[in-house]
Amino acid sequence: MNWTEISVLTTSEAVEAVANLLMNHGASGVQIDDEKDYEKLRGQDWESQGEILNVDEIPHIDAGAKVTAYFPETVFVSELVPEIKAEVAKLQQFGLEVGEGTVTAGDVAEADWATAWQKYYHPVHVTHFLTVVPSWETYTPTHQDERLVVLDPGMAFGTGTHPTTKLSMQALEMVLTGGETMIDVGTGSGVLSITAKLLGASHVRAYDVDSVAVNSAQKNLDLNPVAKDVEVAANDLLTGITTGAQVIVANILSEIIIPLIPQAWSLLPVHGTFITSGIIAEKVAMVLTAQKKQGFRILQTLKMGDWYAIIAQKPGEDD
What we know:
With about 325 residues, the protein is an alpha/beta fold. It has helices at about 15-25, 35-40, 75-90, 110-115, 165-175, 190-200, 210-220, 255-265, 285-295; strands spanning about 1-10, 30-35, 65-70, 105-110, 125, 130-135, 145-150, 180-185, 205-210, 230-235, 245-250, 275-280, 295-305, 305-315. GO terms for molecular function: protein-lysine N-methyltransferase activity.
């Protein structure tokens, strides 16, 4: 089958929003080329890790980010391009800097994108205990406590390599001790739901507004037997949800976290934990202020590059 690609030149801040936008238009997969990812690779001492890697030999964008989506030949993409241009421009209304915002389309053979990029994707050690492993890789844990999150990133939005996902996973590792109930808002690939089950959560519900994401999450959940009982469904944030949980995690845009805050408050018990990520540096003060105004007590903020995650708690009357 032949495929058509639509590429959007944008900023690191807007990549997840643009990727979601493209998936909502029926893309069968997305690829993100972000200069900040390569900056982090350049900063690592590969020789000390027993690897030889010349980052500059890997094809990559020189500035900003490019999000490329792939559509089957049955989709008439020339009609989509102006719609996508308009929607990318509207992201600025949510305070996102979209950069160039250039949208282009072109033909590509299935073999060119379906597997070629896989050689650049390898197991990622997110923490000492958590490693994200692509489904096609054979990987042996390095110690008995290492837990593997198996993903097919070709299906989904989050691969475990983006700072916002890493921060969320680290926060879950800090919070979960075993037996907790959890809600994963904006689940995307399902990576955080899988992580929670690996860390001992007893019951996890996962929601995403996009049915494409729900299907992708389910496929990744199926790759991880520990997550077979995770309930995943389409839903707009926590609207209409009445059954609470001890932990609520959301790795979503800062602007979308704001309306989620009162919903999370109403569903958390006293001393329940609210983890939020996807917060760019320019928006962290806004999110912290909104959470404190609601009544949350900020336990910790985590930072990786320009991205933040917040661990907050619903206090009791005597706290």
